[in-house]
Amino acid sequence: MDQTARITIPATGQIVEIPTGLFINNEFVSSVDSQERIQVVNPATEDIICSVVAGSEKDIDAAVAAARAAFSTTWGKNVTGFERSRLLNKLADLIERDSQVLAEIESLNNGKPVRIARDFDIGDSIQCLRYYAGWADKIVGQTIEVNNKTKIAFTRHEPIGVCGQIIPWNYPINMWAWKVAPALACGCTIVMKPSELTPLTALVLSKLIAEAGFPPGVVNTIPSLGPVGGAALSRHMDVDKVAFTGSTTTGRKIMEAAAKSNLKKACHTREVSLELGGKSPHIIFESADLDQAANWACLGILYNTGQDCTAGSRLYVQDTIYDKFLHLLVEKAKQLVIGDGFDEKSGGGPVVSKAQYDKVWSYIESGKSQGAELVLGGKKRPGKGYFVDPTIFTNVTRDMRIVQDEIFGPVLSVGRFKTEQEAIALANDTSYGLGAGLHSADASQCMRVSSALEAGTVWVNQYNILGNNVPFGGKKQSGIGRELGSYALEEYTEVKAVHWNFGEQAEWPL
Ligand SMILES: NC(=O)C1=CN([C@@H]2O[C@H](COP(=O)(O)OP(=O)(O)OC[C@H]3O[C@@H](n4cnc5c(N)ncnc54)[C@H](O)[C@@H]3O)[C@@H](O)[C@H]2O)C=CC1
Ligand code: BAL
């Protein structure tokens, strides 16, 4: 069966070919046993873009077998760091070559503006691949002196093996790069399961994997429903590690499946890395540059239409500047154009799916019914598309669902505080611990508060800015392990200690 869809890009009329099969051993193939297909929807129009094969458990088995064979022959310990680096750089170059069309496909499938997909998501992904290309030949262990005359020990940082990687729909290309780049740099092989909502760019990137020259089986891609392919990967006896980004609920299931199968050494964080949800606090102190702080607050909650694990969805503003700041914030939030991703004016797109749209609206309704005051948004748009306008609530209390739960939409709760201690207590009053931000002109206050905030990332006088060379991950129920930076290399390698005797005689019997 032809596993290619021909899709027309709305703005240009260009026809692009998108592979829709399973990518195993550098080829697109049909399922071994499933006739099911996943309908892929454009969230801006609600039209079906195309359908892709829905991979089954047997397909996951085939992909894992391909990844295992590659690990034992052409990849793993059989390839030099220099070669892994060369291939990662080649892949980055190919993505750069195709960045416009990749951005257009990302926008069609996810809804985000083409401009933002190209300049931020893809730009950052190219840099991520190049960053880990730089690491590939620098993964080294230690030499440990045991006895100068007779013994030495050394460590080797060996690739963990076959990695299942399960990624979400909010940054399909970027999350792909965050997972693939360090795994390949370390010598692991991959079975990638993209989100069933946004499988298209992972399939196009798979074509580039083959074009770059990675040996067959090094990266395999199985579009599949989460409870089918994702669950099969998590419990697979021949998968050495699972890396996941998504909801805390699914993260728990993955951890359980990993522990119940081959252990994937579930209590050993490097073999199950989870990047989960958040309800991140963002604090504005009275000494802050209010205009800048309002810009960052808008970016914090409205970037990617709020579909961001670190979205600064709880804003706390000091009493003395509250009214002034709220006015600034609302005026700035009104300036964002949420529209079709192919419209150059759009700074944000629709939310990704009908389910996400319904979820966001149920939270907006709960905010209204639980007594929060709506100061912006909160009205549905007529017409097609899963668009939600910036929505701001004030007069919020800790028992409200909009204050407690991750909404993953452009919905902000604004609270007020009098003292630094009160701000810290409000900020930490959550089971999550992914991101947190604060704005203040007082350096000592910045130091004190950034230390007190319970989060894996704290932003001072900015928000939501990440770096490929800076670790990222969560405390509390926001995750396990770290992505990015040199820390991610620990997630994909295992340390082997080698004890070497060059002079000591064994005494026997004891
Ligand atoms: N931390 C983050 O970046 C993300 C957080 N979320 C949160 O989760 C909420 C629900 O979104 P969903 O798409 O349902 O998230 P999800 O966590 O279920 O989906 C993320 C990935 O996990 C896979 N998955 C689903 N069930 C699985 C299972 N039993 N075993 C293994 N993999 C499985 C999905 O197919 C997808 O690839 C969102 O509203 C948002 O609050 C969603 C996506 C990303
Ligand atoms: N913004 C970092 C990754 C995420 O939202 O999932």
From TrEMBL:
Gene3D superfamilies named among the record's database cross-references: Aldehyde Dehydrogenase, Chain A, domain 1, Aldehyde Dehydrogenase, Chain A, domain 2
Keywords, alphabetical: Oxidoreductase
GO terms for MF: aldehyde dehydrogenase [NAD(P)+] activity
InterPro entries found in the cross-reference section: Ald_DH/histidinol_DH, Ald_DH_C, Ald_DH_CS_CYS, Ald_DH_CS_GLU, Ald_DH_N, Aldehyde_DH_dom
Pfam families according to UniProt: Aldedh
Coiled-coil features, chain-numbered ranges: none
Family matches, as PROSITE patterns: ALDEHYDE_DEHYDR_CYS (PS00070), ALDEHYDE_DEHYDR_GLU (PS00687)
Active site: 275
SUPFAM superfamilies cross-referenced by the UniProt entry: ALDH-like (SSF53720)
Domain Aldehyde dehydrogenase: 34-498
CDD domains listed in its UniProt record: ALDH_F1-2_Ald2-like (cd07091)
Protein origin, superkingdom: Eukaryota
Membership in a protein family: Belongs to the aldehyde dehydrogenase family.
Stated name of the protein: Aldehyde dehydrogenase domain-containing protein
Organism whose genome encodes this protein: Pisolithus microcarpus 441
Taxonomic lineage of the native organism: Eukaryota, Fungi, Dikarya, Basidiomycota, Agaricomycotina
